[in-house]
Amino acid sequence: MKKLVLGTLLSLVIHASAFAETSLWKVQSDDSVAYLGGTCHILRQSDYPLPKEFDRAYGDADIIVFETDLEKLNKPETQQIIVRKGMYTDGSTLDKILSPEAYDVLEKYCEKVGIPVSSLHPLKPSMVMLALLGLELRKLGVTETGVDLYFHQKATQDGKKTEALEMFEEHIDMVTSMGEGNESNFVMHSIADLKRTEEIINDVIDAWEKGDKDTLSKLFLEQMREDYSDLYETLFVERNQKWLSKIEGYLQTPEREFVLVGAGHLVGEDGIVEQLKNRGHKVEKLIHEE
After folding, report:
1. Which runs of consecutive H residues, i.e. helices, occur in 177-290?
2. What integer is the mean pLDDT of 151-169?
C-alpha cells in the first residue's frame, strides 16, 4: 500500500515554472463563479510564498470555504474531544487489537524513535499514526502552516466570511475511526510509509505545486482504492458527494467562493472536478504564468 497514510494525512519543492499547471480550478455555472483549490495540509518553509494564482483566487472571492471549521477544530476543548475519541473506552488496548506481527512492527519502530510502545496502548491506530507522523515531521523540520491554515488565518485577519463543508464533529469522527476493522494492516502499512516520510512529502508537495493530477491521483487514491476500498469510500467517495451538493449550491449564488480541500478530493474519476464536469459545469484549470 504505497503512500496510503502520508498521502492521506498530508492530504492529508520547487515552485511552478512558466506556464505550468496549478492545483486550482475555476468553476462557472451561468453567471456564478467558484474557485476550487487543492491543498497540502502541511508545507515547509521553502514552499512559501504560495503560487500567486491562489492569492488571486482568494482576493477575488467573497467567501472562503474549508473542509471543516478550522477555528473550532483548533480550540483546546476540541483537541480534548479528539484525544478522548481517539482512545479506547471499552477496555480494549492496542496490544490486544493488533496481531502479533503488527504489534511487533510497531514495537520495533517505537524502539527506534525512542517511544515506549506501552504509552500508545490506550490509543486507536489513527491517533498512533498521527503522533508518530508528528515526530517524523519535527525531525525533518516541517513545521510550516499548510495551505488551509494559511488562508484561514488570512481570512480572519482580513475579516472575510468563512464557511465549512462538514461539521467538525464529522471531521473528528472520520479522523479517529481510520483503520477500524483492519487495524493490523493499517498499522503495518502506515509504519512502512513513515519510514519514507521525507520522500513522500517531497512527492506530494511537488505534485501539488505542479498541478500534476495524475501523480496526485496515484499518491492519494489508487493504492487505497485497491487495498482499502471501504476506507476509500468513506474518506473520498462519500465525502466528495456530500461536498459536491454544497459546491453546486455555491454555483447558484451571486457571491464568489474559494473552496479549499485536500488535493486528493479534486482529482481522479471520483473527484469533485470530474463530477462537476459530468454534471455540465464549466471547469477550467488555472495556469501559472510566471
Report:
1. 183-194, 197-210, 213-217, 223-227, 229-232, 239-250, 272-278
2. 95
